[in-house]
Amino acid sequence: MFRPARSVLSFLVVISALTVLWEVVKLLGGDPSEAWTPPFQWTVASDLNMPHVWDIAASFVEPAQRNGPPLGLVLVNAGIFTFREAFGGFVFGALLGLALAIVFVHSQLLERALVPYVVASQTVPIIAIAPVVVIWLRGGWLAVAVISAYLTFFPVTIAGLRGLRSPDPRALELMRSYASSSRDVLVKVRLPAAAPYLFAAFKVAATASVVGAIIGELPSGIRDGLGGAILNFNQFYVSGPPKLWAAIIVAAVVGIGFFALVRVAEVLFLRGRAAPSDA
Amino acid sequence: MTLSVVRVRGVDKVFGAGADKTPALEKIDLEIPKGAFVSLIGPSGCGKSTLLRLIGDLTQPTAGMIEVNGKTAHRARLDRDYGMVFQAPVLFDWRTVQGNVELPLEVSAKNKSARADRAKAMLALVELTGFERRYPWQLSGGMQQRVAIARALSFEPAILLMDEPFGALDEMTRERLNLELLRIWKQTGTTIVFVTHSIPEAVFLSTHVAVMSARPGRIIEVISVELPQPRNDLTREDERYFGFITRVRERLRGHEVGKPGAAEVAAS
Q1: Residues 145-204 of A with CB under 8 A from B
Q2: Before B228, cis peptide (omega within 30)?
Q3: What is the pLDDT averaged over residues A219-236?
Q4: What band does B256 get if pLDDT is binned at 50, 70 and 90?
Q5: What mean pLDDT, rounded, does chain B reach?
Q6: Do A179 and B80 touch (CB under 8 A)?
Q7: Contacts of B93 in chain A (CB under 8 A)
């Protein structure tokens, strides 16, 4: 069963626990203050490496630059910008991934010929591909979406192929006995049977698309997204460690939000089907 | 002769090639008259399902010919002359009961209201009115199989091909569905080819029982089951019913260990 309230609650419990753990580590090995001298001195727990939770929280409301808007607003705008790129990449990737799966399920020859390259494509680091794509497409929003799609199509192809092959062979014989076209077999049997597999892949792809978009922004010189913000705050880390952490948190929120969106779509779409426990 | 719906002549079926060659069926001749209820019975591996699949054009014969309604089996399939029912109901769990029954009608491009009317009529025929909006996984095994039968009959096929349709059900459900199937058969006039390995089931249901031997599969004899119609619970207590069961059993046994003639001796 899908219980949004319960998943949100458990999510909040985990977040609170992590926050407490973070501060406990600082309490044990962080920088000494007037009120408290920690028993240990751990480099990782210093204020530079692990700023206090409240410092990170406060950085959201402080201006990002002198006389500028608060960091929180800057990051939310950057998050929306990056989400758009990620969404574009997700759609490109999902369509390409599904198209490849459909081609492969109909042609063993093409499957055998192309799947090794599909797999090989994922062993090339995205960091190496991104600048090339940027040069080809002259940077910009499209280049970022393409880089993001490069990460998202793969799980969709692999899971899609598995899902399209999942129908009972007798279901396919049944369709044959109705003299149905291969288009009908695809639309009425293979794709519906593949839906649960596809949604599993879409969830992986949703989070990967955010990573792809952030990485894609770096060589494209795009400054309006989270990639730009992370690069920027990374360069000036020493002068304001909480800012980078704030950017990381927003990036995580975008990824989690996208994942949750796909999950909701999944629940709506697969409504009425037997719960796995019933099978 | 024109009354034959299915005509199988000299059909061989060989699986594999070279050293792995396995003959599945050898010199099969079979005539199925219109409106008949023919059971194919034999030990496992005798190719009875293969024969059914050959008639339904789901696989092709190595030699010989199959004629259905005066056409090739292939043509008959394209003309949607077959309804198929397997041992498993093979329902689509993302479709409601009615949606499942409508599926073949969608493929044959019937309009929406005609589809719904037809599906409802078919569900009424298998006594599942009121379950249209349920999902298959909410039904019992016997009910699921009835949905499968309703689906197979939805586009009024001339022939219903059934591959051990009640094999996975418990005895009581099976007996009830046997009676229902006979009622549907009478009501629709559909010719039925039925694969089973239950001798009593074959005798109870059929007008003809084709007894098969294993490896390679051959038809030993087609026994006409001359029991009164309509058959009902009393049929199962009829002396002649037991007579036919014994006859089928002896024909099967006579060929079990490759002793042709043994059955004839026992029968005489």
Answers
A1: 168, 170-171, 173-181, 184, 188-189, 192-193, 195
A2: no
A3: 89
A4: low
A5: 87
A6: yes
A7: 273-274
Q: How many CB atoms lie within 10 A of CB A176?
A: 17
Task: Tell me the H-state helices in chain A.
Answer: 4-29, 53-61, 71-106, 108-123, 126-137, 140-164, 169-177, 182-184, 191-220, 226-235, 241-269
What domains sit in chain B, N to C, each tagged with a CATH number?
4-81+157-267 (3.40.50.300)
Residue A140 counted as domain residue: yes
Residues of A in contact with B82 (CB under 8 A): 177
Q: Which of the residues A177, A187, A190 would you substitute to probe the B interface, choosing the one with the greatest number of B C-beta atoms within 10 Å?
A: A177
Nearest to A177 among B82, B92, B95 (CB): B82
Question: Is residue A6 located within the same domain as residue A94?
Answer: no
Q: What crossing angle do the helices spanning A4-29 and A53-61 adopt, rounded to 10°?
A: 110
pLDDT of B260: 47
Query: Is residue A34 located within the same domain as residue A155?
Result: no
**How many domains, in total, are found in chain A?**
2
- For chain B, the first-to-last Cα distance in angstroms comes to 31
DSSP symbol at A43: G
Q: Which domain holds residue A126?
A: 73-278
| A168 chain-B contacts, CB cut-off 8 A | 88, 90
ipTM: 0.84
Assigned domain for A60 exists:
no
CATH of the domain at A250: 1.10.3720.10
Q: Of A177, A195, A279, which has the smallest distance from its Cβ to B84's Cβ?
A: A177
For residue A56, tell me if it sits in a domain. no
Same domain, A180 and A84: yes
Residue B20 CB coordination number (10 Å): 7
Pairwise CB contact (< 8 Å): B77 & A176 = yes
Q: Are residues A91 and A29 in the same domain?
A: no
A34 touches chain B (CB under 8 A): no
A62 part of a folded domain: no
In chain A, % of residues over pLDDT 90: 69
When mean pLDDT is compared over A84-98, A132-146, A258-272, B168-182, the highest value belongs to: A84-98
Chosen for mutation from B50, B52, B90 (greatest number of chain A CBs closer than 10 Å) is B90
pLDDT in tens, A127-180: 888 888 888 988 788 899 999 999 999 999 999 999 999 999 999 999 999 989
Do A121 and A164 reside in the same domain of the chain? yes
